[in-house]
Amino acid sequence: MIRSVRPARFIPALAATAMLMVPTIGTAQSASLNVEIDQAQRVQLRGPAGSVIVGNPAIADVTVVDANTLYITGKGFGVTEVVAVDTVGRTVFQSQVVVSDGAGSGRVRIWRGGQSTEMACGASCSATIRGNVGNLPTP
Fold this sequence. Notes:
By secondary structure, the protein is mainly beta. The chain contains 1 helix and 10 strands, in the order αββββββββββ.
């Protein structure tokens, strides 16, 4: 006895099986990424990136090492977002980036009237390349 197979019955099962077999590119990093100012954090992507978008380039910068590796550098204090998408436009990385001064990092700010100077300190202190940061509000 030969039974005929109705293809319509197997389409939903075939589609579900195909979805399980397709490699997924999930969103990496749902939590925020903390980066100290003038420091870099390495980010390994879950899939190759085709484009990288930085919400505010004055706060963070991204260097693409290869399709799967990014370095995020803190440029200015604040919060921004970095998104990497593949060549089709699927998100392979999305994270809020918080750039801070990194308390206890050997930096001090000296105030003279309304002017402040940022200093980097080790065995001795010297002005950073930011040097005179201008008229910032007094803490």
